[in-house]
Write a structure and sequence with these properties.
Elements (H helix, E strand, L loop, with lengths): L3 E8 L13 E7 L3 H15 L8 H5 L4 H8 L9 E7 H14 L4 H10 L1 H15 L6 H11 L6 H7 L2 H13 L10 H13 L5 E6 L6 H6 L6 E7 L5 H21 L5 H7 L12 H7 L17
Parallel strand pairs: 1-4, 4-5
Antiparallel strand pairs: 1-2, 2-3
Helix pairs in contact: 1-12, 4-6, 6-7
């Protein structure tokens, strides 16, 4: 069976640093255009934007002076509808979901909602402590610091109480990271995004061949450990300048990430939100109900959650 050929790029990727970084949203775009059509799209963007830059990036179309170009790119007269899919990841929600799933075997939605509504420095400190606990490069000291931060939360609940009893699980988890340094990093959002791209484009029936923008984290060993088997027909790292499809993926990932991040901050550009909605994966990893109501391609859909099979 002929594989489905896609090209992928991301925006907002900071490895396992999910909080306290530059971005609060990760976006992974996959493009099903053929190379000729993608090259024509990039050429048209160049004609409309008229920037002397050697390589066009998402920030070119996000500039206010190029808004009409962006509206064309995303809109019904543009070349992309039906050929690009973007998975969004709310980094804080992804972190909390991984934390509660791996330590206490429970969903983290209620903890995330309580923390987001409370906000403040205590919640921010807890998120940082949770990130350090789950980060493969951190030390065993992160266990004690996490449980101190947990005690300072100004709310309780079943998940919080379960976490307070989970020190043995935390110690076992940290020990597992030391014993298997080649394991898939538990907080890396890029690897499960690749799994999701294969699921989405293959639809359970066809293998998928991926050309992906270069990332040092995408080693052959890690790709093999995703367990995709025959569903992944090929995986190649290429530079964006040699594949116009990846440049298109960069545009959409960056634009979607910016729009989604604005939604988390309660900044709603209704026009752009309506245009980006058809491109978004309904199984995006998102925990904030108000913003997902505006972003969801299925306006009545439930919030997506992290699935355990993706990263175990």
């Amino acid at each position: 069976m002929t594989p489905v050929a896609i090209a992928c790029d991301e925006s907002g990727y900071e490895g396992e640093k999910l909080v306290g970084g530059v971005t609060d949203v990760f976006a992974h775009a996959s493009v099903g255009l053929d190379e000729v059509t993608a090259a024509e799209c990039v050429a048209e963007l160049r004609r409309r934007i008229r920037s002397p830059a050697t390589e066009y990036k998402a920030n070119h179309v996000l500039r206010s002076k190029n808004r009409q170009v962006l509206l064309w790119l995303l809109g019904p007269s543009g070349p992309l509808l039906g050929s690009v899919r973007v998975q969004l990841v709310d980094k804080a929600f992804f972190l909390i979901s991984r934390l509660t799933e791996l330590l206490v075997g429970r969903p983290g939605s209620s903890l995330y909602a309580a923390g987001r509504s409370t906000g403040g420095s205590v919640w921010d400190g807890f998120l940082q402590a949770a990130n350090n606990l789950m980060w493969s490069r951190e030390s065993m000291d992160s266990i004690e610091l996490f449980f101190k931060a947990l005690e300072q939360l100004p709310f309780d609940g079943e998940v919080v109480e379960a976490l307070k009893r989970a020190k043995p699980s935390a110690e076992a988890f940290r020990g597992g990271l030391v014993e298997d340094p080649g394991a898939i990093p538990p907080l890396d959002p890029l690897l499960p995004a690749i799994v999701r791209a294969v699921e989405s484009w293959g639809d359970g029936r066809r293998p998928v061949a991926i050309a992906h923008d270069r990332q040092t984290s995408l080693s052959p060993q890690r790709i093999a450990r995703l367990g995709l088997g025959d569903r992944l027909a090929a995986f190649e790292l290429v530079h964006s300048t040699s594949d116009s499809r990846i440049q298109v993926a960069d545009f959409l990932a960056g634009v979607a990430r910016k729009i989604a991040s604005d939604q988390l901050a309660c900044r709603d550009d209704a026009e752009l939100t309506a245009l980006i909605r058809p491109y978004l994966d309904p199984l995006s990893v998102w925990g904030d109900a108000p913003s997902w109501t505006r972003l969801s391609p299925d306006r009545g859909s439930a919030l997506a959650t992290v699935r355990s099979q993706d990263m175990r």
